Amino acid sequence: MTEKTLLEGKTVLIVDDEPDVLDTLEELLGMCQLTRAGSFEEAKSKLETQSFDLAVLDIMGVDGFSLLDMAQEKGVLAVMLTAHALTPENTIRSYKMGAAYFIPKEKMTDIIDYLNDVLLAVQAKRNYWNTWMERVGQYYDDRFGPEWKDDKSDFWKALAKKDWKMASEVEI
């Protein structure tokens, strides 16, 4: 099974206040049934009235954390895709709020891989973040410097060891 076949026909809500990001996501995720939303209100309405397999949520400009809560209530797997809110703290917050992944916008071209990781985790009944550190850890090292994991080091150690219970229990 190729990674694209896992996404084939999936209903995906894409939310961002930047039209060019939505356009890029449409190009990258052409194998999916996509629904666009450019604002919090529009995304909220779509979450309330439609069913989705996945949601790709920006944080800044569309109140992505509130949308994450709504997606969770509806049973929609949500990944966070952000540029301005890209911090280790928001990564932890996303994990603890139930996001299936946290994606830097600079890595958006790899979104098929990240969504595939999430869907493979669902199939295998594993934690969604199973591959996150391998996929994004080096990017964080480069962006935030070698000490980025020092704050909340218990969380990052647990995530690296795939100790999901311990990671969930770390205070943010």
Which features would summarize this protein structure in a list?
14% strand, Rossmann fold, alpha/beta, five-stranded parallel beta sheet, 172 residues, 9 helices
Q: Would you give the CATH topology?
A: Rossmann fold
CATH class: Alpha Beta
Count of beta strands: 5
Instruction: Report the CATH architecture.
Output: 3-Layer(aba) Sandwich
Q: Helix fraction?
A: 40-55%
The succession of helices and strands, N to C, reads HEHEHEHEHEHHHH
Q: What's the arrangement of strands in the largest beta sheet?
A: 2-1-3-4-5
Shape: globular
> What would you give as the CATH superfamily?
Response regulator
How much strand content do the residues show? 5-15%
Rg computed from alpha carbons, rounded to a whole number of angstroms: 15 Å
Biggest sheet record = 5 strands, parallel
Spans of at least 5 consecutive residues with low confidence: none
Structural class: alpha/beta
Span between N and C termini? Answer: 38 Å
- Mean pLDDT comes to 93
Total number of helices: 9
Structural domains: how many: 1
